[in-house]
Design goal:
Arc Repressor Mutant, subunit A, Alpha-Beta Plaits, 153 residues, 2 domains, 4 strands, single chain, alpha+beta, four-stranded antiparallel β-sheet
Length: 153
């Protein structure tokens, strides 16, 4: 864990809110001159605290009406099967996140699809063909109450 002072925390908080924020605007908001602000921002990037910049998209407006949380249980846990599984998951654009978890299932996936027919095809053509997977449990989101990638800094 990296210790952040108040200025670093303010930088991270503001960049989470608006990744397009220019250095000049950020410096102005923090009452800093531009060079020290830029140096701090670059240090936060180099230390891996800020890992990426991206636009947040409205999945529904892009036609992804289905959000599913999928629990996968595996019956093979050898290194080769696990590596093959992980490689295939990394290549799957419909999978927004994949977590190796404790509990009844081995993995929890967050998956988007255009509609239920599209999701059904994804299950048949992708999930059922993943190496080592013995059980698939899907939970379809009925209503999204909150969606965020912002950390509480």
């Amino acid at each position: 864990m990296v210790a952040l002072d108040k200025v670093d925390t303010d930088i991270v908080r503001r960049m989470q809110q608006d990744g397009k924020l220019t250095n000049a605007k950020l410096a102005s908001e923090l009452s800093l001159s531009e060079t020290p602000c830029w140096r701090r921002l670059k240090r936060l990037e180099e230390e891996g605290i800020i890992t990426d910049y991206q636009a947040n998209l409205d999945r529904r407006k892009l036609g992804f009406g289905v959000m599913a949380f999928v629990q996968l249980t595996c019956n093979q846990h050898d290194e080769d099967t696990t590596q093959a599984f992980e490689k295939l998951i990394q290549q799957c654009d419909n999978v927004l996140s994949c977590h190796n978890t404790t509990g009844a299932a081995d993995f929890l996936l967050q998956v988007v699809a255009k509609d239920l027919d599209d999701y059904s095809r994804f299950v048949d053509q992708v999930l059922r063909k993943l190496p080592g997977v013995s059980a698939i449990v899907s939970n379809i989101s009925l209503r999204e109450l909150k969606a965020s990638t912002r950390l509480p800094v």
